[in-house]
Write a structure and sequence with these properties.
This protein has 61 residues and is mainly alpha-helical. It is built from two helices and no strands.
């Protein structure tokens, strides 16, 4: 995409700039995850997805 000039250089630099924060979040999540509580994590994830769907509906202006 960058070779075809579809991807702006600013977007590439922003991605590089945000990469450490993304990596830190992934490492922190992996360290905090306890496989014995998988059902809890799955329930929280589904609740967050449902909330995102509801908040994305056009009924909130």
């Amino acid at each position: 995409m960058a070779a075809q000039s579809v991807l702006a250089p600013l977007a590439i630099w922003l991605g590089i700039l945000m990469l450490p924060a993304y990596a830190f979040g992934g490492l922190a999540g992996r360290a905090l995850f306890n496989p014995e509580r998988e059902r809890l994590y799955r329930g929280v994830a589904y609740a967050m997805i449902a909330l995102s769907i509801v908040m994305g509906l056009p009924i909130f202006g």
